[in-house]
Specification:
globular; 38% helix; binds zinc ion; alpha/beta; Rossmann fold
């Protein structure tokens, strides 16, 4: 390790993104306990989302996964995209055999992206693209700032909150394309469903969702 890296590790010791514990020697990216105990989904437990062929997620959205996502989105932990995206790429590789042409994501509204400094779904999409070798491209835009979906309440309210809030970028033609649509968490599925509908209107042949975690 170079001297600067050593100093940085002393000042800011790397922590497990899920439980927040300082990593021990030999632990990389996340702690051994979380590696064993995270709530992994089984292949048959993928969420059904309207407009998507399926929605794959490696993890259930609870316990450490929930806190990890919170650190990633609200705690400035943008670096967690590397590990989270790796787990998503593995899930896609293990559970999706049909051909894919393109990876895209459900974008933040530009205002929200500016506040946060990054778009969490975009960083995940870029990491999945890097590992899978599939092209990544921004195809959607959010046309109005909606209430934060995690605060929008029941499924019905969530669906109303995002209805008509996404469209594909101007004049984009996706005819015949088979798309992987990425988001951070699938709760009601309303965001994925809206985005999938917009992609299909632009000609996409199929859309499969891929999120880091899913709610029950
Ligand atoms: Zn941990």
């Amino acid at each position: 390790m170079n001297p600067a890296g050593f100093l940085l590790d002393l000042l800011y010791p790397p922590k497990c993104p899920f439980c927040g514990r300082v990593l021990e020697r030999g632990e990389e990216s996340w702690c051994a306990s979380c590696q064993e105990n995270l709530p992994w989904t089984e292949p048959g437990q993928d969420k059904q989302v309207e407009g998507c062929s399926s929605c794959l997620s490696p993890l259930w959205y609870r316990d450490g996964v929930r806190s990890g996502m919170h650190r990633y989105k609200f705690g400035g932990g943008r670096g967690h995209a590397e590990l989270f995206g790796t787990l998503m790429a593995q899930c896609l590789h293990d559970r999706w055999e049909a051909p894919v042409d393109l990876i895209t994501w459900a974008p933040l509204h530009p205002k929200r992206k500016k506040e946060r400094g990054y778009d969490q779904a975009e960083l995940l999409a870029r990491r999945v693209g890097e590992l899978s070798g599939l092209p990544v491209s921004g195809t959607l835009e959010k046309t109005r700032a909606t209430a934060v979906q995690s605060q929008a309440g029941e499924d019905e309210a969530r669906a109303a909150n995002v209805r008509g809030a996404y469209r594909v970028l101007r004049e984009l033609d996706l005819t015949g394309r088979r798309v992987v649509l990425i988001d951070d968490v699938a709760t009601s599925g309303a965001t994925l469903s809206e985005c999938a509908a917009a992609l299909r209107r632009a000609g996409a042949d199929s859309v499969v969702g891929l999120t880091f975690a899913r709610a029950r």
